[in-house]
Specification:
8 helices, 68% helix
């Protein structure tokens, strides 16, 4: 299921120390920004003693899904109560998409987490009038995950400024 390429990029970073630009076994340069590869390679170096395993390959995906579920819970708790936010968080994790995100070595779970984090920090900075640095740092992490699309998706909520009824 296309797990060879992410594993090859992680091995290239962890074993060959190509942290800036990774290549696969054919010599092709990675087509994605490197944040997932860096996190999986860091897990490989620290936990796997330089040997890749399913744990080190899937750990960034698992942590990203967990982080997204925690964000859903924390953001929903204030507005909808803890029960509704707990159900929403569980529905995300137990949905076919959430389960698939944990079992595939891909950038998608990390991208979903960074978009959710960027959107939450953007809303917080907008309502408070300060704290934009955290928004831009999360947007940079989103860009390092899958490119500038993360900033565009996370900033979509700012279009509500132009709605006729702002209440």
């Amino acid at each position: 299921n296309d797990q060879e390429r992410p594993a090859a990029y992680v091995l290239d970073a962890a074993v060959n120390h190509h942290w800036i630009s990774q290549t696969d076994w054919t010599g092709d340069i990675t087509s994605k920004p490197p944040l997932y590869t860096w996190l999986a390679a860091l897990a490989t170096v620290t936990m796997g003693k330089g040997e890749i395993s399913l744990l080190t390959l899937y750990l960034p995906c698992y942590l990203a899904v967990l982080g997204t579920a925690i964000l859903i819970f924390r953001l929903g708790r204030k507005r909808f109560g803890w029960r509704a936010s707990a159900i929403a968080s569980l529905m995300f994790v137990l949905s076919p998409l959430g389960m698939k995100m944990v079992t595939l070595a891909r950038t998608d779970p990390l991208f979903a987490f960074t978009i959710t984090l960027t959107a939450a920090l953007g809303y917080r900075a907008w309502t408070r009038g300060k704290g934009w640095t955290w928004f831009w740092l999360a947007a940079a992490a989103s860009g390092l995950t899958k490119g500038p699309l993360g900033l565009l998706l996370a900033s979509g909520g700012f279009l509500s400024y132009f709605w006729p009824n702002r209440a």
